[in-house]
Automatic annotation (TrEMBL):
Function: Catalyzes the isomerization of 5-dehydro-4-deoxy-D-glucuronate to 3-deoxy-D-glycero-2,5-hexodiulosonate.
Entries under InterPro entries matching the protein: KduI, KduI/IolB_isomerase, KduI_N, RmlC-like_jellyroll, RmlC_Cupin_sf
E.C. code: 5.3.1.17
UniProt enzyme class: isomerase
Organism for this UniProt entry: Reichenbachiella agariperforans
Database matches in SUPFAM superfamilies: RmlC-like cupins (SSF51182)
Reactions listed under catalytic activity: 5-dehydro-4-deoxy-D-glucuronate = 3-deoxy-D-glycero-2,5-hexodiulosonate
Coiled-coil residues: none
Matches recorded under CDD domains: cupin_KduI_C (cd20491), cupin_KduI_N (cd20294)
Keywords: Isomerase, Metal-binding, Zinc
Cofactor binding notes: Binds 1 zinc ion per subunit.
A single BP term in Gene Ontology: D-galacturonate catabolic process
Record-given protein name: 4-deoxy-L-threo-5-hexosulose-uronate ketol-isomerase
Length: 280
């Protein structure tokens, strides 16, 4: 079996206030992604969300079910989002091939029985980043390239947060039950993401940082608006954001991050914004 997983339980804001650095990282940081020839999954009790990766280097990889799902197949009651952050690869969904190049996305609907990952070149393997959420309806599978994404230009260079938000697996681009995914690219000279900071108690979120240059880092901020915490992160690491937490970051260089979320609704603008000068 080439699938490994771990389970993360939900934590209250009061409990998180008492965590030291190591405990905070153990609770929210996902630092074991992109292992060659392995599917790695983290099952979180925040909206039953799963984040993970599949890197088919020397062999094809199959997305197998895991014990917490109590189902014969992984997608029996789930939907799946895939974004390739490596070399060219192919995702086979019940025999249908979807070729994904760098930063291409794929939505896989509930009920798909077999999902197989393959790289075009073993020396430059595909790196498939995976997000999954419970589903109630089977929507069609659909590939979405970055060019096909809905784009938002936000921020300014003067405030060091000029960025392009690529909405990829989201309403208006593809039909989903509750899963939403996209990619935000910071422009050269900008380092801050998701400002002004906000929370949305109706949804949880996971960020996965990519294109962080070697020897550089991103400081990810989380916590309640009046009780923030931070986690230093490296390239191809992800972080879980509870519904009650902000999710923002600043890097020592510009970078890109993939966001995924699920929860009560599909309204992308559903957020409670905190003015920057009121953060504590």
């Amino acid at each position: 079996m080439s699938v490994s997983y771990e389970v993360r339980y939900a934590s209250s804001p009061d409990a998180v206030k008492k965590l030291d650095t190591k405990e905070l990282r153990n609770e929210f940081l996902i630092d074991n992604l992109m292992k060659p020839d392995e599917v790695v999954l983290v099952y979180t009790h925040y909206d039953r969300y799963i984040a993970g990766s599949a890197v088919p280097a020397s062999k094809k990889l199959t997305l197998e079910t895991i014990d917490p799902l109590k189902s014969e197949t992984f997608l029996a009651r789930r939907e799946l989002g895939v974004i390739n952050v490596g070399g060219d690869g192919t995702v086979y969904v019940d025999g249908e091939a979807f070729e994904l190049t760098y930063k291409d996305a794929l939505y896989v609907g509930m009920g798909a029985k077999e999902v197989i990952f393959e790289s075009k070149d073993a020396s430059a393997p595909a790196k498939f980043y995976l997000n999954s959420a419970p589903a109630h309806h089977s929507f069609p599978n659909k590939k979405v390239t970055k060019a096909e994404a809905k784009k938002l230009e936000l921020g300014t260079l003067e405030t060091a947060n000029a960025r392009t938000v690529n909405q990829m697996l989201i309403g208006g681009v593809v039909d989903t039950c509750q899963l939403q995914m996209g990619m935000t690219e910071l422009k050269t000279g900008s380092v801050w993401n998701t400002l002004p900071s906000h929370v949305h108690d109706r949804r949880m979120e996971v960020y996965m940082y990519i294109e962080v240059p070697p020897e550089q880092s991103v400081c990810h901020f989380m916590g309640q608006t009046d009780e923030t915490r931070h986690i230093w992160m490296q390239n191809e690491q992800a972080v879980i954001s509870p519904p009650w937490s902000i999710h923002s970051g600043a890097g020592t260089s510009n970078y890109t991050f993939i966001w995924g979320m699920a929860g009560e609704n599909l309204d992308y603008t559903d957020m409670d914004v905190c003015p920057i000068n009121e953060l504590r």
